[in-house]
C-alpha cells in the first residue's frame, strides 16, 4: 500500500488538482493508495509510526522538508518499508539534493514506475533524525525571526537573514570529529546529508545523500565589514572558500555547547537543548529517487 501524507491546509482550491494528478499516475500504474491528511504538528510522525509497524508499505511525503522530516522521525521497520517524496513545499531543499522533479506528475511517476534505492540519513544520539541538514547558530536565529509573526515564505526568510547577519554574535562550542577536538566561536555549524537549506542556500554544496558521509561546515565569527562578502560566497555555493570556514566529510561529530541553553534546527524544525551528537546511517532507508 502507498500512503500519501499531506497537510490538509495546502490542498484547497486549485492545489487540489495537484493531488488529483498524483492519483491519476498511481491509478495508471495499478497502485493501491490512500491519502492521509495531517491536521496538527507531529501528525505525519504519528502516521509513519503506525503504518511502518507493518511491512510492504511506501510512505509518500507530498509536501516540503518539514513533512518529510516528520515522517522520517516516525519511521520503523526500515527493511520492509520505503519512503518517497512529491515536492509541494516552499523550499523543497531535500528534493533539490535528491534530484526529484518539482513537477508533481514526474515525481509521482518516479515512485510509481521505479524501484527505491538506499540513501543515508543523520542520526542524533537523542533519537532525532535528519534527512537534509541539522545545525545551529545564525540559521536558528534566522528561523526564530522567520517564525515570529504570521507571514513566512522565502521573502520573510531572507529579510530575517539580513537582520540576523547584523545582530547575531556567535555560539561558542567544542566539536569532536575524526579524533580531533576543536574550540570554535561559531557563526554557524551544520551537518549536511543534503546540500542546501533555507530555500536554496547551499550550506554544504558538495554533500551527497548516498556517499556514507555527513558534510560538516563550521564558520567562525566574521567581522561585520566582511559579512556581506561571506554571504555572497554562501549564496553562490562557495562557502568552502570562506577563510573562517572549517569543512570536513565525517562519519560522526559531536558538538558540546558552552551555554547549556541552546536551540538547534533540523529541516527547519526547532529543538530546544537537543545536542548535536550525530552519526551517518547508511544502507537502511529505502527511498525513491
Radius of gyration: 19 Å
Largest sheet: 11 strands, antiparallel
Q: N-to-C SSE series?
A: EHEHEHEHHEEEHHEEEHEEEEE
Count of helices?
8
* Structural class estimated from helices and strands: alpha+beta
Report the portion of residues in β strands. Answer: 25-35%
Mean pLDDT: 92
C-alpha termini separation: 18 Å
Approximate helicity band: 25-40%
What can you tell me about this protein's structure?
With 289 residues, this protein is α+β, with helices and mostly antiparallel strands. The chain is 29% helix and 34% strand. The protein is built from eight helices and 15 strands. The strands form two sheets. Strands 5, 6, 7, 8, 9, 10, 11, 12, 13, 14 and 15 form an eleven-stranded antiparallel β-sheet that branches. Strands 2-1-3-4 form a four-stranded parallel β-sheet, sandwiched between helices. Strand 3, helix 3 and strand 4 form a beta-alpha-beta unit. Helix 1 runs parallel beside helix 5 and helix 2 packs across helix 3. It starts with a strand and ends with a strand.
Give a brief description.
Helix 1 (16-29) packs parallel to helix 5, helix 2 (43-51) crosses helix 3 and helix 6 (138-147) crosses helix 7. It is globular, with a radius of gyration of 19 Å. Helix content is 29%, strand content 34%.
